[in-house]
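Hi P.,

Sorry for the delay on this. The queue was packed all week, but I finally got your sequence through. Input first:
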Amino acid sequence: MTNIDHNTFIIADTHFGHLSIIKYEGRPFSSIDEMDDFMVEKWNSVVKPGDDVLHLGDLTYHNQSKSKAIIARLNGNIDMIWGNHDRHSEKWYQDLGIRSLHRIKRWTSFKNERIVFTHFPLCQPFSFPYACNIHGHLHSVGGYFNKRLWTPFNYNASAELIDYTPIKLGEILKAIDFEFIRKEWDKIESRWNDEGEN
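Then the structure:
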């Protein structure tokens, strides 16, 4: 994939073609077609041709031909993190038009803001030092701090929590308190160093 930057759009858990997700998550749609059309419209309202999108997994439940038709309607160049419902081969997704697939993706901004992109939420702060995890999988499960911040170290970009609309990474970064993350990691490292000396 091309380099991630503040203008990269992020979204997770679209579940195109998944009838049961309407019931499970209380999505406000009466049919798969209504849901799919709504999400395509929301996507294209912000993503323009040539924009980059990182999808954090659980893309589609449709068969390949229907999935390909959906992807063809979506603006932008799509890279993807594997989700637990993305059960086809890498070639299957590439044939849809997905540019690249990853298990995990790391990124550091020019401000030294460290991000780890995954589908499943990581057990932060212990998985990756000084990093915030942007993930999906939890759908509408709200966080302890607000509906998107599951912990101060985890940002949930599931479709239900971002109005089914891809969100720019730069907007997500505004919600993350990197100063808090750095201070917490300094405390953790200090405790580890103290224990190592005893």
